[in-house]
Amino acid sequence: MSLYKTSQKIYKLNLDILNPKIQEFINLNIGVSVSKLALQKNPFPTVEWILILNQIAAKSKAKDKLPTWFSTPNIIYPSKISVEQTSSEITALYKSSIISGENLIDLTGGFGIDDYYFSKKIKNVVHCEINTELSEIVQHNFNHLNKNNITCHAGDSNETLSRLNTKWDWIYIDPSRRNDTKGKVFMLKDCLPNVPENLDFYFEKTNSILIKTAPILDISAGISELKHIKSIHIIAVDNEVKELLWELNKDYSGTITIKTVNLAKEKTDTFEFVLDENQLQPSFNLPQKYLYEPNSAIMKSGGFDQIGLFYKLNKLQKHSHLYTSDDLIPFPGRIFEIEKCIPYRKNEMKNHLENQKANITTRNFTDSVENIRKKWKIKEGGNLYCFFTIDENNSKIVLICTKIK
């Protein structure tokens, strides 16, 4: 069985792209519209114009996402979409905090960002990539990044795993969805490699497996397909969930720990809990002085009761996933001071919000943000934050707030 990291075509490794004048041209055009540049005549006829344009587009994407690669001379980039799909350096750094040991094999190496950070913690790292040209690009880049403890193997990673006949401290896998699964429910069995199908084979080669999946994967679906799950890490960057990490151990059969992480420049928020069907029931209350909205990683985790219990907050309503208290407390998410709580009625809306400027959020509410704005002529922006939701009495309410965090 062939294992594909991506269906995107990677152009052939052409070292002529490293010509100093071409590299200078690429750097001078970072952020410039490639569609506009494409209308120009190629100033370097010895190299295909499309290759140069691809370098400009991909390197432009790497500027913020991959600063180490961006700032290192003579890096060669694959297609722009490959850079878009690869891990960011900030999430790769987090992944490296999970693993330890002497050796690790990455069965779906891709552009190699994760392996670069794994190599800072692991003595020997093996990068497997089905696409020979991409494997060559990655090996070239590792040389320029002075990474001498990463070995690149092109070809089917299962075959590489069998041929090397090594006991690994870790196997890392980032399965990709097959093209014929578009529109279907995202299941691991629909990805390449098919991890559930190969799991017993992998556990012959290691005791510890780390799997990265896209955030679209339903957590309960992943749990139903896998076994020996020790932890699930939900990783957000600036309050946008980027990836799920599944930590498996061959000998583990206990409860699953959910770890939520929101990586941000100012502060990294973390919250974890154990999946347990016998959780205590949360407390409910009408809106008090402060309002709390969990970050996106917590929202993805489904730990709505656990977060309220841990921080001793009251939920507004079972399905609203907003919390309240009279005392201000630190919280992994946004915090607001409630200025007014009004019923969602015509007269109240006309008196308080019609023709005003406000930021609108709906939680467990029947109407959309777009319809609310249109109906009450509310402009976007300003310092007011309005939450349209339902309270514990199942009454429609609007919380008019100012933001604290």
Describe the structure.
With 405 residues, the protein is of the alpha/beta class. The chain has three domains: 15-84, Arc Repressor Mutant, subunit A (Orthogonal Bundle), CATH 1.10.10; 87-274, Rossmann fold (3-Layer(aba) Sandwich), CATH 3.40.50; 283-403. Helices cover 30% and strands 27% of the residues. It has 15 helices and 19 strands. It has helices spanning 20-28, 34-37, 49-65, 67-71, 80-85, 89-96, 113-118, 132-144, 157-164, 195-205, 219-225, 296-301, 304-310, 346-352, 369-376, and strands at residues 103-106, 124-129, 150-154, 170-173, 176-177, 191-192, 208-213, 229-237, 240-249, 257-263, 269-274, 283-284, 290-294, 314-315, 323-325, 333-343, 357-362, 379-390, 396-403. Strands 3-2-1-4-7-9-8-10-11 form a nine-stranded mixed β-sheet, sandwiched between helices. An eight-stranded mixed β-sheet has the order 12-14-15-13-16-19-18-17. Strands 5-6 form a two-stranded antiparallel ribbon. The longest helix has 17 residues, at 49-65. The radius of gyration is 25 Å and the shape is globular. The termini are far apart.
